[in-house]
Amino acid sequence: MSIMSSTDTLMVQAPQDSELAGFIRSLGRDPNGICLGTLEHLIIKYISYFRLRDATNPSMIWSNVRLTNSLSSNRVFHATQLRGILCGLVTACNGSRIHRVTGSSSIFTDWMQAGNTFFISEALRAILMRDYLPVGSKSVFTLEEIKAYISGYLMRRSQDLTYHNNKDAFVVQGEELGGVLGVNSFYRREIPMYFNRHMIPSSPPPAFSLRPEEDRIVVGPPPPVAASVETVLRRSPRMKNAVLRARVARKCKTGVVGVNISLN
Hints:
Elements: E1 11-13, H1 19-26, E2 34-35, H2 36-49, E3 53-54, E4 57-62, H3 65-70, E5 76-78, H4 82-87, E6 91-92, E7 117-120, H5 122-131, E8 141-142, H6 143-156, H7 158-161, E9 169-171, H8 176-181, E10 185-187, H9 191-195, E11 199-201, H10 206-209, H11 229-234, H12 237-253
Antiparallel strand pairs: 1-2, 1-6, 3-4, 4-5, 7-8, 7-11, 9-10
C-alpha cells in the first residue's frame, strides 16, 4: 500500500512564458493548474523515456538540455531532490506557500559502519594522501578521522565536482575518484554506501572471532583404577575377619595343614 504525500494533490502553476510552463504544455497538460504529484510523475516518465538515469547509479539523473532548462539549470540531481526542485519553481493555485525544508547538512547523516578503527583501501588512500590526507605514514584510522578526510576532500574539490545550484550532487565522471567508487555521480546521502566499501575494520568484530572448539589430544596422569570387590571389603573392619575365615576354609578343603592364622 503506497502512502500519498500531502503535497501530491496540491494544485500548482508554473510562471507564464517560463521554460517549465512550455515543458508542461508539450506533455499535454495545463501549466496553470496541475497537481504537483502529477507533474513529478510526468517528469519521471520523461526521464525514463529518454534514459536520463546514470547507468552506474540509477538514482542520479543527468538532464538533457530541455529538462535542464525547464528545471532552472539543474543539470545533475538525485531522484529524491526532484520534488524540492519543483517546489522552488511553481506556486500554489490556492496561494499556499510552498517551500523546501532541508534535512541535516551533514554528508554523513546516514553513515552506517561498525567498529572502532579501519584501514582504507589502497585506491582511496592514494587519492586522499595526494590531495588531502595530512598523515602519510598512518595506516589505521578512526571513523571520525575518515569522515573528516572525505569531507575535507569533497569540500576542496567542490568547485570541480558539483554545480553551483546543487552542492549535494557530486559528478565524478572522468575523475580518479569516480573510477575508485565505480560511479559517475552520487548524492551526499549515498556517501556511506560507496565509501564503506573501501573501509576495512582493523580488527574483526567479536562475532567473527568465535570458532567451534576443535578435537584435541590431551596428555595427563592415568585415571584411577577401579577397586576390586575384595579390596572394597578389606577396607571394612567388620568384613576383615569374614574374608580371612573364607580363606582358611578354602585351604582346609585342599588339604593344606599347619596353617596358623590369627583371627584376632
